[in-house]
TrEMBL record:
Subcellular locations according to the entry: Nucleus
Pfam families recorded: RAWUL
Gene responsible for this protein: Pcgf3_1
Designated name of the protein: Polycomb group RING finger protein 3
Compositional bias ranges of the Basic and acidic residues kind: 84-107
GO cellular component: PcG protein complex
Molecular function (Gene Ontology), one example: zinc ion binding
CDD domains: RAWUL_PCGF3
Predominant cellular place of this UniProt entry's protein: nucleus
Length: 209
């Protein structure tokens, strides 16, 4: 497996369909559908490089402000949380070891119960473009940008009482999306930061012979 900077890889695959290292063909026509987000590697890099995560958040804020878009909630929340943590240490408001361990445990529990609400959020409109399936009663949803197309398939299948999420295709701009694509990836590469909400269509899966 190869880990490459996402923005660099996306730019490369706009004009190529091969691996930038070994030159093996990824896919003849849709190579972008066959790359995934390496969250583990990203976490490792953030921990190894001091200040990198904060710098990335700052760049994201500047980017969204430049486009005149609302800054996603995770950036505000994480920045605020970091600032409060640093201020507490500067003011000498550190606790005893046992209290610290207790707070850490409580914070961990809060994080586990967060259900990705502090992630960057994406507004989505899910439309049905097939007479064989019914539309959703509530087609407008808001969820984590790290959610994948597979998550959406499972959500739609549950709402429509389908026997399997594999019976569905989800499209953006009439292009079928890969199941491992994150919504952030779809917004950047397919929706290209057009005005929210992200419009996606679903239909019965079409088997290509």
């Amino acid at each position: 497996l190869l880990s490459v900077c996402r923005s660099c890889l996306v730019k490369y695959l706009e004009e190529n369909n091969t691996c930038p290292t070994c030159r093996i063909v990824i896919h003849q026509s849709h190579p972008l559908q066959y790359i995934g987000h390496d969250r583990t590697m990203q976490d490792i890099v953030y921990k190894l490089v001091p200040g990198l995560q904060e710098a990335e958040m700052k760049k994201q804020r500047e980017f969204y402000h430049k486009l005149g878009m609302e800054v996603p909630g995770d950036i505000k929340g994480e920045t605020c949380s970091t600032k409060q943590h640093l201020d507490a240490h500067r003011n000498g408001e550190t606790k005893a070891d046992e209290n610290s361990n207790k707070e850490t445990s409580e914070e961990k529990q809060e994080e586990d119960n967060d259900y990705h609400r502090s992630d960057e959020q994406v507004s989505i409109c899910l439309e049905c473009n097939s007479s064989k399936l019914r539309g959703l009663k509530r087609k407008w949803i808001r969820c984590s940008a790290q959610a994948t197309v597979l998550h959406l398939k499972k959500f739609i299948a549950k709402k429509l009482n389908l026997s399997s999420f594999n019976e569905l295709d989800i499209l953006c701009n009439e292009e079928i999306l890969g199941k491992d694509h994150t919504l952030k990836f779809v917004v950047v590469t397919r929706w290209r930061f057009k005005k929210a909400p992200l419009l996606l269509h679903y239909r019965p899966k079409m088997d290509l012979l």
